[in-house]
Amino acid sequence: MLAAFQGFAQTSPQKIAPFQIRLVNGQQYTSSQLAAGPVVLIYFSPDCEHCQDFTKDLVKNYNVVANKQVVMVTFQAMDMLKPFVNQYRLGTYPNFKVGTEGTSYLVQRYYQIRSFPYIAIYDKKGNLVRTFEGEQPHAEIFKALKQI
Description:
It comes from Dyadobacter beijingensis. The protein is 25% helix and 23% strand. By secondary structure, it is α/β, with parallel strands linked by helices.
């Protein structure tokens, strides 16, 4: 599936993807519902080990995202997403929105994502600050998060 994107030049869109996800509680959540302020978009797969490691570390270092909106998007089905959300207790964080875009792959195509997790960090004006793709040093990601 992801091999189809390899011919594209890597460009980072400056604004957040116009996402539409279904949250684990069944509600729809879209990019237009984001409040003003910094946003961290994380594209992941519940069965990806790097994604699991990063999520575990992110929860442990919650202070770096406590004042930011965190949107976690996957393409996987709800039956894979719910156990992931429960395992990391993501529903207990009011600033976290975790959902699936299903097979629209809109977010995946928008960012031309080839490996997970993909993290896009936006400042309070909604401008892209930095992206990380695939396995990256968590300390470096947290440092970038602290700066916005």
